Amino acid sequence: MRVRRPVAFEPEPTPAYADPPQKFAYIPEGRLIPELREAAQTRDPVEILARSAAEFHRVRRQPTVLDREAKTDFATALADLAVTGRVSYRKLQEGLERTALEAAARARLAGDADPPTAGELDAAIDRALDRAYEVAWALRGPLAQRADLRAGLGWIAVSGEDDAPHRPVNTPAPPYEQYELLVPLGNPALWTRFFIALAEEPPATPIPRQQRALPPDPVPAIPPDHEVILFLHGHSSGAEEALDIVPHLLEAGRERGKKYAVVSFDLPNNGYSETFDHTRIAPTSATTYPRLPSDHGPILTPILDFIEDFVVAFALALDDAAHIASRFAGVIGGSLGGNLGLRLGRRDLSNAPWLGRAIVAWSPASVWNPKAQHPEDYLFPDKCMGRCAEAETAGSRLEYFRQVYDVSDLPGILAPQSKYWYRPGWELADVHVRLSRLARREIYNAHYRQWHWRVAGEQLVYSHFDRVDHEDASTPLRYELNRVPMLLAAGAADNGIGAKIYDNTAKLAGLMVNTPGRLLQVRDTGHSIHFERPHAFAREIVKFLTGRSMEVTCVNRDGGRIQRVGVTDHTVGSRPSTFQMTGDQCLTAITQGDELYVVGADGSRSDVRISVKLRVPSGGDPGSGEPRDYYITTSGDESEADNLRSLTKCPPI
């Protein structure tokens, strides 16, 4: 046999991800070649399709089969760009005049030695249109047909740097229907994408594909027997972040007799939402924080404020479209989503009181003291704010991915950001990081990069431990204002240098004495609880969302053991009611996720929890006893007025 040198095969895509051919993109950052970018930058479907048609016509002049294949591939990629960018697609939705396209295509071919005949031009235009509409139906067609239409298309050209995509193109799309919503915030209002995952999906209804028409936009609808959960994704992520935990939330809901509809949407400048310059919201200089210890200026975070407003505006717009207010179950989210949950928990929601039904916030950002006033702190936000002001250059894309995924040049941080997303040793961590990188390559643009660093900088200087007005003792501490029922969660392995999210979340929970709810601390788990422990965490979330909130007002004892308590049910969304429960019923209620608490005469509050006594054999090891007796007691705090022993005797039933 012949022996040859080792060969290097072309990189193969991760399943469900389509990598761009090397002839069309630069490796490793994935930026498209200038010839394709120039077309995408026009954001004009007529111009882009004219270029495609011109290249399809030139195929026949190529001298070899390989040359003809290469020219065909290039013409196909151009046609893709007419429908993969958000701006171009929206213009195409407004209508396409064939005569304008013919004129533009003929102009592109005017300098050729053999201009096309009318029939040849029509044929070239038809090829461009066929590909464009085929891609449009594969990306935006009905869910029942989308996967089959997409399967045979391979890589589809998209240039997020020049015209941001409106749907996943070469990354996996959600297995749920996707929608567009105009959020009436900003100037002008902003479009974003979202999906709805239902506990019971309605029967799929295929729509016949029309060869020269775009697929109709679906209208969001949620069955009347479904309750709505709103998912908020993390920093620089997107709606797809919810996909790992969604099936478990729906399953856990069904186990407790609930049908849930989980709504996950792209926050501004993230995922497949509309993109824009961050200075449109506020100039970079509007983000302020003190640097030197002698500097006592204000801490202002206008971009975080805008994102919080966007969440509320999205919820109100969705209520207008799908009527969710009367069956809203709660808001859930981690990292930036957890930060937003804590902020919503003290917001004036008089225009949407239902949005404050319940909040689940895990691994929340900004649970540290403000990174300001000391060099070891303010250098972090300084770095971020400097980067968000950097103009886009030829090297910006590669440098962004290097800073997020490959190295760390932030003071005191030993690893890139991505290394802190999951617990050390988690077997799927590297896979998730790689898929995240591939997804961000598709949507990357200057606005996304600058937004990433500005949000990061503002989260560093914002603190839930801070006063409403930094260093102004006449204003309350922020956490004192949180009054919405809340499940606050953190993973024990999320204690990275500088952030200490696990420790700080526990500290914050201990101070939030006026906030209904509880703290969930998870062992052997990192920052991304919803990825690392989706099944167990979903059950805890649903247990919290379905639990009752009851104030214990009186207690009857027999020989020291609680026999019966009186409670007033203050569950959000239900009418207050007063009744009595046995001690065993209290144990069952707490186990199932109900919240029992005592409010003292001094206004302090203490949760009722389950304790256990152990049977210790005579002369045996106290640690070897078996559970003997479960009972309820109040958690310890500094007040003597809010425990079960302080309550009066219940009246006879």
Describe the overall structure.
Helix 11 (375-388) packs antiparallel against helix 14 (446-461). This protein has an 8-stranded mixed sheet with strand order 1-2-4-3-5-6-7-8, sandwiched between helices. Strands 11-10-9-12-13-14 form a 6-stranded mixed sheet, with helices on one face. A hairpin with a 6-residue loop joins strand 1 (178-183) and strand 2 (190-198). The chain has helices at residues 34-42, 45-58, 65-84, 86-93, 98-108, 118-140, 143-151, 246-255, 302-322, 336-344, 375-388, 396-406, 429-443, 446-461, 501-511, 529-532, 534-546, 583-591; strands at residues 178-183, 190-198, 227-232, 260-265, 328-334, 359-362, 486-491, 517-522, 549-558, 561-569, 577-582, 595-599, 605-615, 626-634. It has 3 domains: 34-151; 178-202 and 222-369 and 465-543, 3-Layer(aba) Sandwich (Rossmann fold), CATH 3.40.50; 547-646, no CATH class. The chain has 653 residues and is α/β, with parallel strands linked by helices. The chain is built from 18 helices and 14 strands. Helices cover 35% and strands 15% of the residues.
